[in-house]
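Known limitations

Files may contain more than one protein. Parsers should not assume a single record per file. Below, a two-record file is shown to illustrate correct handling: read the sequence, read the token line, then continue until end of file.
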Amino acid sequence: MKFSNELLKTLPVLLGSLLLPSPVCAALEHMFLYFPDAAMVMTPASMGLEFEDVSFRASDGTRLHGWYLPGEKGQPLVLFCHGNAGNISHRVDNLRLLRKLGLAVFIFDYRGYGQSEGRATETGTYDDMRGALNWLQEKGWTPEKMIYFGRSLGAGVALQLALESPPAGLVLESPFTSIEAIGKHHYPLLWMLAGWALDARYANIAKIDQLKAPLLIFHGEQDKIIPQQMGRELFERAPQPKQFYAIPQAGHNDSYDAGGEKYWQKWRDFVQKIAI
């Protein structure tokens, strides 16, 4: 997850938002939370990966873009929800490593990211995830043969779908308890003054006890964006079966690099334990 370095400069805007109409207040989310990039820097083909370029619709009809990478027969599919910055083209190396496990992968851009139309909102990202699931089901995949994988902001998106359509397993990486908790942690004064103006809540801590799927959480011990304590709070609230893997040298964005082979072994073990 990325946060703007200019937040302190927005204090006059935030104070002014107390008197401004809701569309202006909603725009503040794009100062704090969503950092889309339209430019596609590479594709899976850049790393020699077979893939299908996919155009599909969110559950509310918004046109979205994603990539489907086929996997080995009998292996589950990873439905990948990325973080709040960039687009899917910035995750190609991660796709390569997931494919090395034999897993099929479907990754998509939220509305307003990459080649996807629209503008991101919390409810919109949920509709985007539902649309991704609908596309996969039309292709013959069922949630029982999928692992939902959410990193950072994507953890909230993946968790919501897991509650609605339970998968074979849920993997959360650098997850957060809520947008409110992050706001209070990093910018307590600004949050007190204008946090109410953000529509997005992603109240994961209030939802995770309803999960009905095996859970694996990764969290870097050096994460300065989302403190590892938030990941542990989610873990404590979640029902069994569940696993938590703390990565000593990892920050917020480098879990699979800093975690090395132990990180990928955790993935292998998790895949082997879930029944598909």
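...continuing to the second record:
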Amino acid sequence: MNTLEQENLLINGLANNNKQAIETIYKDNYSVIQGFILNNNGSVDEARDIFQEAMIVLYEKAISGNFELTCQLRTYIFSVCRRLWLKRLQQLNRFSHHTDSVAETVAVEEELEAHEKHNNDFTLMETAMGKIGEPCKSLLDAYYIQKKHMQEIAAQFGYTNADNAKTQKYKCLMRLKKLFFAQYKNGN
């Protein structure tokens, strides 16, 4: 079964309130929409609202009986969400640019691809972090996520001084880069 057939089954499932179809649409599309809205002056709650509005638009199209998908489902959902979000930003006076000019906006496909690549890179990094092992994982977490100073890290991990902790952090970072780029090259 090709992608178009699968997506038409999802749309039919949505029209018939099939729980599995609805969950699949959410699972396959929500994270990209949330990332787009968070990167464009929005919050998680606003992303949920916009995605829900787009699902309602899609549902109404699906039950109309004459809806024909002319692009990938994710592209359609993204373009609906993008339009809804830009409209909401205008209403909230958080966006002053006039959104009707298609020539002045980035193509939806390109924007979607960029968000998907960004999400894929995060997934690869998360996998690499899972493979790096201890104490590297905790050390990098302490420095980059918890924003601890080298003196604190040296004390926490038992290094004799901040310079030794910095050297170990560098080695861990190089190991993480090696794991990340090995996955990146393999396309995993």
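Parsers that stop after the first record will miss the second one. For reference, the second record is described as follows. The chain has two domains: 3-104, 121-186.
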